[in-house]
């Protein structure tokens, strides 16, 4: 049965000047606590410093409290038994979750993170896929492709924190994000040709646009896996860091990157994303026209006026997203 949206938003304020972290979960048949495979965690609060949230996999909705910058939303993948593989329920929950983010103006950066140690996303759920007829499999992969397009179309910057395996559809999910961080120990690859397939959820298109056609062809033709350091050398990820004892080095690096984005004017960041993404698909003259239209959208904003005033007054700007 297709996943249906179930919304829950527990809220807890622990002490003054520290806001809550809000968690939303989407469930399919049965109690939501037993079925949530993808969760949202909103990291709210003033810039009072930073501590890493503590996540648990107990079958209940959690309060995840942190001292963090306002405006980060984390997508928490937690299909433990199947290593975050892309099954019907997981994909249905992710689709609803991503849809909810499209119109959330308070979110400035989205981080995709796994709660499963040593795994980002293992790719296709092959056991589930084996039960599908050929038409069912084709329809399901079409839905996967649509999901990845929806992630790529999110208006705010997105970051994939790859602390473990990101194979097949798992790497395609990471490629749908704007930016990627990885631990040195992570393993990434579009391995579909080793299974008699080709990348079907955007990988054959996004990988060449990320690392260049020659490298992408080599990686896809061979089904080769690469580690985090090599991925950074190829331009597959933006940053690669040594893994730490808690196994979340890429996530911490993603939060660090998000903190660099947060102080910038949010409408300007969104318009820059539109200009680059749409401009990359057309000739440079058309791209310049797209840039001009995006620039024009920013001229009447209060944030632009604030940026100019802050420069003149020699103070940090205070952007409000208007």
Strand content: 5-15%
Instruction: Describe the sheet with the most strands.
Output: 7 strands, mixed
Number of strands: 11
Radius of gyration, CA atoms, in whole angstroms:
20 Å
Strand order of the largest sheet: 1-2-3-4-6-8-11
- Give the overall pLDDT as a whole number: 83
Q: Overall 3D geometry?
A: globular
Helix content: 40-55%
Number of helices: 12
- By helix and strand content, what is the structural category? alpha/beta
End-to-end separation in angstroms reads 41 Å
List the secondary-structure elements in sequence, H or E.
EHEEHEEHHEEHEEHHEHEHHHH
Low-confidence segments, given as residue ranges, are: 1-33, 45-68
Structural notes for this entry:
The protein is α/β, with parallel strands linked by helices and 322 residues long. It contains 12 helices and 11 strands. The radius of gyration is 20 Å and the shape is globular. The model is unreliable at 1-33 and 45-68 (pLDDT under 50).
Summed up:
About 40% of the residues lie in helices and about 15% in strands. By secondary structure, the chain is an alpha/beta fold.
Secondary structure elements and pairings:
Layout: E1 21-25, H1 32-35, E2 38-43, E3 72-77, H2 88-101, E4 109-114, E5 119-121, H3 126-129, H4 134-152, E6 158-162, E7 165-167, H5 169-176, E8 179-183, E9 187-189, H6 203-211, H7 213-222, E10 226-227, H8 228-234, E11 239-241, H9 249-261, H10 266-279, H11 284-298, H12 302-313
Helix pairs in contact: 2-4, 4-5, 5-6, 6-7, 10-11
């Amino acid at each position: 049965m297709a996943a249906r949206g179930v919304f829950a938003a527990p809220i807890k304020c622990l002490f003054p000047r520290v806001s809550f972290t809000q968690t939303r979960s989407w469930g399919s048949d049965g109690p939501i606590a037993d079925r949530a495979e993808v969760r949202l965690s909103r990291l709210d609060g003033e810039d009072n410093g930073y501590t890493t949230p503590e996540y648990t996999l107990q079958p209940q909705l959690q309060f995840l409290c942190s001292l963090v910058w306002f405006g980060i939303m984390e997508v928490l993948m937690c299909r433990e038994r199947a290593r975050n593989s892309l099954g019907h329920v997981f994909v249905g929950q992710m689709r609803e979750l991503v849809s909810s983010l499209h119109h959330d103006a308070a979110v400035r950066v989205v981080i995709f993170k796994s709660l499963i140690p040593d795994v980002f996303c293992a790719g296709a759920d092959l056991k589930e896929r084996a039960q599908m007829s050929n038409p069912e499999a084709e329809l399901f992969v079409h839905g996967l492709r649509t999901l990845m397009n929806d992630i790529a179309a999110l208006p705010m910057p997105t970051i994939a924190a790859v602390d473990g395996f990101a194979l097949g559809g798992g790497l395609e999910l990471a490629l749908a994000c704007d930016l990627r961080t990885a631990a040195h120990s992570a393993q990434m690859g579009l391995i579909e040709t080793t299974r008699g397939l080709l990348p079907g959820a955007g990988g054959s298109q996004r990988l060449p646009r990320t690392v260049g056609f020659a490298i992408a062809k080599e990686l896809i033709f061979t089904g080769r896996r690469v580690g985090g350091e090599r991925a950074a050398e190829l331009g597959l990820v933006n940053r690669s860091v040594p893994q730490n004892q808690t196994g979340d080095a890429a996530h911490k690096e993603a939060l660090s990157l998000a903190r660099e984005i947060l102080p910038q004017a949010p409408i300007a960041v969104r318009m820059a994303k539109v200009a680059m993404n749409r401009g990359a698909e057309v000739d440079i003259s058309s791209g310049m026209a797209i840039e001009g239209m995006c620039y024009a959208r920013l001229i009447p904003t209060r944030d632009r006026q604030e940026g100019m005033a802050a420069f003149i007054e020699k103070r940090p700007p205070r952007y409000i997203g208007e």
